[in-house]
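Holo prediction. Input below; ligand is S-adenosyl-L-homocysteine.
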Amino acid sequence: MKVFLETYGCQMNVSDSEIIRSVLAAAGHEVARVIDEAEVVLINTCAIRENAYRKIYGRLDTLRPLRKRMFKEKGYFVVGLLGCMAQNLKKDMFKHPVVNLVVGPDNYRALPDLIGKLAQGNQKRQQEIDVDLSEYETYQGIDPKRFDGVNAWVTIMRGCDNFCTFCVVPYTRGRERSRPLDDVLGEVRHLAAQGFSQVTLLGQNVNSYRAGVQRFTDLIVAVADVPGVERVRFTSPHPKDFPESLLLAIASHPNICTHIHLPLQSGSNRILELMNRTYTRNEFVGLTEKIRQTVPNISITSDIIVGFPTETEADHQNTLDLVKAVGFDSAYIFKYSERKGTIASKKFPDDVPPEVKTDRIVELFDLQRDIALKKNQAKIGTTLKVMLEGESDKRPGFQVGKTEGNMTVIFPETPHRIGEILPIAVTDATAATLLGKSQSLRMPVLTG
Ligand code: SAH
Ligand code: SF4
Ligand code: F3S
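Structure of the complex:
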C-alpha cells in the first residue's frame, strides 16, 4: 500500500518516523510522495503544548475530502494517529471522524498488522488501537530509514522518569530504557560507512543512559572514536545530574561539539521546586560556570517556561536576572500550557492570565535576543569551523552550515560538498544567524 507519513514534534519523533519507515518498508509498503496518492496517512504527533494538538486537529480536518474519495474508490482509507498525542489521548482520538488507527510510541512494530486489518475490513466504522507502553521496547534490530543529509539522529534511550510536574513526556513515552552500547556503536559504524558526517545522540535525559556499568560518557566517547564520524552532538542532558566526565570528554575530543542544551525552565527557586526540577538557581549557575571553565567558548542554550502556576512578577524577575547572569547563546521560551494527566494539572490551577504570560514571554524574548546579538557580534572577525549543510533557501548563491556551537552561518557559495567542515570568517551577525566567507584554499584538482 502507499503510505504517507508526516512528522510533528521533537527530534525523537523524527527519529521514530525513521523507524516507522523501516517497519513499513520491511512489510512491503511503499512511500507515497504526495498525500493525494496515499491509501494510508500516518501522522506522528506531539503532545507537549496545547498548540501541538491544535495543529493536528487542523491537519485532520483537511483529510476529510481525501477520506471520502478514497472510501468511494477503494473501500478503505487509513488515517493513523501515532506518537505522543496518540499515547496521551488514546481512544478519545477516535472522536475525530477521520481517525481509524491510534498507535503509541512503543507499538510501531504492530503497524503493518493493524494497517492490514483496516484495509481488509472494508467498512467505515472499523477502528484499531495499540497504546500499550513497554518497559523494554528500544526497536533493537530495526535499521532506521533515514533521508540523506549530514546529520543522523540516533536514539540511545527512550522514556523519561523525571516527572517534571508540567511535562507530559513521562506519560506519553513511559519508563526510561537504554539501548545496549554495542548496538548503538554498530549503528554509528554503519552510519559512518553510509557517509553521514554527524551523529546526534538523542534521549529525554541523556544523563540517565545506563547499559550495564556503562554510562553516557562511555557511550559518547566510544561514538566519537568511530572512524568517519566528524561531529557528535547530543540532546538533552538534565542539569540535576550532569556528569563532570562528560565535560572532560568534550574538552578532550575535538569531534564532540562544544554545545550543550541545558534546559533551565525557571530562575525562581520556588517555581523550580514546584516544577520538580530538583536543582536551585545557584546550582544551575554553578554548573554553567563549571562548563565554561572546563570547555572555554562552549555554547550553552536552554529552554524556559513563563507563566507556570503561581508564578509572580518577582519569580519572573528572577528568571530575567538569571538569563542575564548566564548569557545563553540562544533559548527557546514557551508559555506554560497545562497538560492533561500531569502532576501540575492536578495540583496547581493554571492561574497566570494569558496576557501576563504574553508580557513575560515578550520581555524574556527581547532580553535573550539582545544577549544573542551581542554574543554573535563578538564573533565578527573570528574564523569558525562550519559544517556545510546545503544551499541557503533564503539567499540564492549562498550556502548554509552550522558552527560547533550549533549556530547557523551563511556564506557565498563554495565548491565544497555537504558534510565538509570549512573555516569560515565571520563578517556580520544578527541575533539568529552569522554571515561569513570561506577561508579555505581549495587546490585545483590536476588531471592528466
Ligand atoms: N526532555 C527534555 C525536554 C523535552 S520537552 C529535557 O528535559 O531537556 C522540551 C521543552 O518543552 C521543555 O524543556 C520545556 O521547556 C517545554 N515544555 C514541556 N512541557 C511544557 C508545558 N506543559 N508547557 C510549556 N512548555 C513545556
Ligand atoms: Fe519532561 Fe522533565 Fe522528562 Fe524533560 S526531564 S522530558 S521536561 S519530565
Ligand atoms: Fe517530543 Fe512532543 Fe513527544 S516534544 S517526546 S513529540 S510530546
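The CA atoms of residues 218 and 383 lie 31 Å apart. That is the main takeaway for now.
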